[in-house]
Amino acid sequence: MEYEVVFVCPYPTIDEKSDGMMQRIIKVDSLSTNSRIYLDLSFKRLRHRIDIFESERGDDVKVFRGNALLHFFKIYNIIRKSNKLYIHSGYSAEKIVPFLFLRKTIIWDVHGLAPEELRFQGKLVRSFAQRIISKILYSKAKHIVVVTKSMQKFLMESFGERQGFIVAPLIGELNISPDSTERNIIVYVGGTQKWQNIDKMIDTVKNSDISHEIYVPTSELDNITTRFSDCKNVLVSNAKKSELVEIYRRSLAGYIIRDDLILNNVSLPTKMMEYLSHGVIPLVDYAEIGDFYDYGYKCINIRDTNILKSLNLNKMREDNYEVMRKLLIDYNHGDSELEDMLKC
User: Fold this and answer.
1) Which of the residue ranges 6-10, 152-156, 217-221, 285-289 would you say has the lowest mean pLDDT?
2) The most confident of 84-98, 169-183, 240-254, by mean pLDDT
3) Does residue 14 belong to any structural domain of this protein?
4) Do the Cβ atoms of 177 and 277 come closer than 8 Å?
5) How far is CA 154 from CA 1, 66, 110, 151, 266, in A?
6) Is 219 among the domain residues?
């Protein structure tokens, strides 16, 4: 075999490395020590070329950039000479549907629920196409890599029982940091995107009698300041990511407001991981987010912030630390399983 693994996805450039999907691609790449090539395919690109990049660990990575239709036979020859086909998301699979029926070891890294994402965006035709692709991937893949147990459960309910799942969120090192620092603020770490429900949060703040200062560290200073202009006890400040840990240590609770959607039910919000690891009690509208609910995390409904003073927040905090410890043990096991599979 010329290549042990063919990864079907773009290879991140320097400017793209902060993107969530690209970060996952980099993490998976770091687990693969075998010869590999990336297929960065498009339906618009007219020419093809092979680029060589230096990976995070210092070796060379080949990237074939081409058109999924015009360069069909070149793509076929690359896949034919490989052992494993690692497909990052259903969106990448759109470009190689005919090759899913070759006798190759297929690994499908789901990332997110593409059909549901597209339906939520109103793109019904593409959503339907993605559902068909998901069914094919579900039946053809030897291994299906998901970020949460909730996502595994949803896929099994949608397409039937099967083996071969690996729950590997690849979150890396995450320190659980209990401390005795005086906590006297409520925090909101997030942006103004619609799915973060900032308008619902602002309405809640306006209509509550919270006596604590609400601190909003942000890189969108002007936009966020304008949005909170009519709210009392809200301090908006420019803050770097490196400063968040200290802010969390001073925070009683933190807003993370999500709607009751399957996309939220199966997700793994970085913000929730950070809150629980640093003793910040989540303030939620809908509690069933990712695996946290099934593991028994403690949270407070945004309409009940008036009872903050009467709750045993220290006990809730300790319960959440324990939830995170259990989650990390299970998740790290899945990460190791994925690493072993890529090295085989």
Assistant:
1) 217-221
2) 84-98
3) yes
4) yes
5) 36, 34, 12, 5, 8
6) yes
Task: Provide DSSP, 107-165.
Answer: EEE--S-HHHHHHHTT-HHHHHHHHHHHHHHHHH-SEEEES-HHHHHHHHHHH---S-E
Give the angle subtended at the CA of 297 by the CAs of 296 and 300, to the nearest 5°. 125
Written as one letter, the residue type at 195 is: W
Report which of 273, 279, 323 is spatially closest to residue 185, judged by C-alpha positions.
279
Of 71, 113, 120, the C-alpha closest to 91 is 113
Has residue 151 been placed in a domain?
A: no
Interhelix angle 124-140/149-159, rounded to 10 degrees, is 90
Residues 211 and 308 in one domain: yes
Q: How far apart are CA 63 and CA 3, in angstroms?
A: 12
Residue 18 pLDDT? 63
The model's pLDDT over 84-97, given as tens digits with 9 standing for 90+, comes to 999 999 999 999 99
Domain that holds residue 234: 185-325
Pair type for strands 49-54 and 60-67: antiparallel
Question: Average pLDDT over the chain, rounded to whole?
Answer: 90
255-298 pLDDT tens trace: 999 999 999 999 999 899 999 999 999 999 999 999 999 999 99
> Rounded to two decimals, what is the model's pTM?
0.89
Question: What is the CATH number for 208?
Answer: 3.40.50.2000
Phi, psi for 39 (deg, rounded to 5): -105, 105
CA distance 57 to 175: 23
Distance between CA atoms of residues 240 and 105, nearest Å = 43
Of 141, 158, 176, the one marking the end of a domain is: 141
Element (H, E) at 22: helix 20-31
197: left (phi over 0), alpha (psi -120 to 50) or beta: left
In a domain, 229, yes or no: yes
192 pLDDT band, cuts 50/70/90, is: confident
